[in-house]
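Retry 2 of 3 after timeout on previous attempt. Resubmitting structure tokens to design endpoint.
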């Protein structure tokens, strides 16, 4: 049964067509976007996009997000110079999360790290049962 699974390729003719694929009401009109380095596969960060941010990203090639804190659009790198450029766009099986494979210029995280996911969590020995964390 698994051998029948294939990678789906959806050919999009317009930005409007792409926007219609995303289940915007389900995500409160802010779609989570996982950013992955296009060469290494490393997860760089998680951001959010509204429809305008996604349109701008597609038009300009520089990745633009929606800031939930400031409630405004922001393009990664506009103040730091650490831009992200879209290489490919993927939609998950539920049409409610995007994965962008990106070319990263400079550091990703505002802390100066190469990824926003630099805090490894470990389970204390006292909590270990028979499962892997």
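Retry 2 succeeded. Sequence:
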């Amino acid at each position: 049964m698994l051998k029948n699974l294939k990678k789906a390729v959806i050919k999009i003719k317009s930005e409007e067509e792409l926007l219609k694929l995303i289940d915007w009401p389900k995500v409160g009109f802010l779609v989570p976007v996982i950013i992955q380095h296009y060469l290494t596969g490393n997860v760089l960060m998680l951001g959010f996009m509204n429809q305008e941010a996604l349109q701008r990203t597609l038009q300009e090639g520089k990745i633009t997000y929606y800031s939930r804190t400031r409630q405004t659009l922001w393009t990664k790198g506009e103040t730091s110079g650490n831009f992200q450029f879209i290489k490919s766009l993927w939609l998950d099986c539920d049409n409610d999360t995007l994965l962008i494979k990106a070319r990263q210029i400079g550091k990703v995280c505002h802390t100066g790290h190469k990824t926003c996911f630099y805090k490894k969590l470990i389970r204390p020995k006292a909590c270990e049962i028979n499962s892997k964390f």
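Attempt log closed. Residues 24-127 form a domain with the Ubiquitin-like (UB roll) fold (CATH 3.10.20.810).
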